[in-house]
Amino acid sequence: MINNDRPSNQNTSSTLGVGGYSHTKATLALAKASFRSIMRSPSAVVFTLAFPLIFILVFGFLGGGGTKLDIALAPGSDIQNPVVVALEKTGLVRLTKNDDQKNIDSKLEKGNYDAVIKVEKNPNGVPAYFTNVTYTSASLDKGNILKSILNEISYNLNSQNLKPTVTEIRASTVTGRLYRTIDFILPGQLGFSLLSTGVFGTAFVFFSLRQNLVIKRFFATPVRRSSIVIGEGIARIGFALLGALFIILIGHFFFHFTLIHGAITVANMLILSTLGVLVFMGFGFVVSGIAKSESTIPPISNIITLPQFLLSGTFFSIDAFPTWLQPISRALPLTYLNDAMRKVAFEGAGLWDVKQQIFIMLIWGIGIYAVAVKTFKWE
Amino acid sequence: MEKRNAIISVKDLVKNYDDFKAVQGLTFDVYENEIFGLLGPNGAGKTTTLEIIETLRQKTSGEVIVDGYSVDKDPSSIKRIIGVQLQAAGYYPNLNLVELLELFSGLYGVNVNPMDMLAKVNLQDKAKAKYKALSGGQKQRFSIATTLINSPKIIFLDEPTTGLDPQARRNLWDLISEIRKQGTTVVITTHYMDEAEQLCDRVAFVERGQIIALDTPDQLIDNLIASGFERKKEVKKANLEDVFINLTGQEWRE
Complex ipTM, two decimals? Predict the structure, then answer.
């Protein structure tokens, strides 16, 4: 069994020179592997693409634009009267003409109808019509809108043949960009998509690479630790940007999402996305470090993502929140990403115009990476 | 025995974990182009010793030289000339074998054809399979393929045959012998003494972090017999494993 007769191999000089190893090549090999892996991971695709797209679809179809008042025309009303005709012309009301009284009453109580209108011809001649309006306390704000609409209609109808004695209101409207629901919703969903892929994706990948000793095997090769982190980062950012581009294009071509300067706006949004996902990846590194087991990753990640999902103006403008809640909203990084995205996309702002938002995100980035360096574990 | 060239030289190696002394002053050499076995019960310090030589773990004290490089001063040079198979390593999720080998050739900075590597371990048919979908023996062979990517001078195999059926085990022995024939030094740990006897040129027995015997398997057996040891039962010309192989055939099924 002993190979004493074997001539000992004297050639021990290394065939791989010290300069022959390329860290760039190693980093790119890791980025490629990671990107392939992400594209095949169902959860990454669901969180980054499917979730935001579902919300965009829902809100895209829901938000036709503007407020509409639901008004029932009481049975027995005169349909061909000028009041109803003028009301329909405003385009602000959805008029239901053939509902029965019982139904109308019940829907009025629930606020499904904002008001009921009954128009009667005056048998005495002047005025020609009586308009009876019943509002509902279930929908007072819309009732008030209707009140002013009716006031204006009746004023116009009554003064058709009169010269105004005190004043005549000459109203005009500046032609503005139509701010659709999608213009608010899409940047929020985009921000959320970046948040999930940054936090969940990074946390899961690094945790499982560590747990399954994949990283340990990497350490037996000449690869540097920085190459592992950078390679993973490149793949994650690449995937997030692909998702972002997809969401923006779907929004633009199917739901008329406003991109003021076209391709430049898209490019600016992608730059903001890169910054966003970089910051959010920092949270992911922290989670991967502090999670004790795979099952603790989702709850910890949710603690980070859910408040931002709800409070960072993803669905509602922060201005709509109670004042005590607003400072919390204004402390979260996603708030600033969403804000910057909306300014860039709808108002046509350049990156310099949103420098304040970018600055705050950078501060978050520095802070979270400082924590990540302390908590991150390789083994 | 003629003096041979030591490619690995371990002197007074000590490794302490907090209050546990895993390795307590190991000294041994591994010669070029031999198959060297580290044997011993679980927890004896075999894996710790291997991982220190592989530069994956810091030692407490002692000296380890691998092909002229010190593990303290030049770990990255060592990493380039060794191939490492870990006891329980996983591989990047969602990738098939070819893609994993591409990744490793990037990590080692070499250009290899993944199919050639798979051919070396007879896994060409599994090129598009995921690592998780492989059988135990296939997993070990794939692990060995990843250790060969950088044409290493030394490969380290930590319990490569644990959990394999007799056919897969024998197949792996052939593969390891073949690798050695190409000029590679092999350091292996195992719990199977028949395996060590068949495969290893020299073995070291490690117990509680210390080497208690180091020699060729033949010599160690002769020493024992010379001390008056006798097996309780007369050894037959075949054992139950021979029966198993005889009945179920040599070729592998997976």
Answer: 0.91
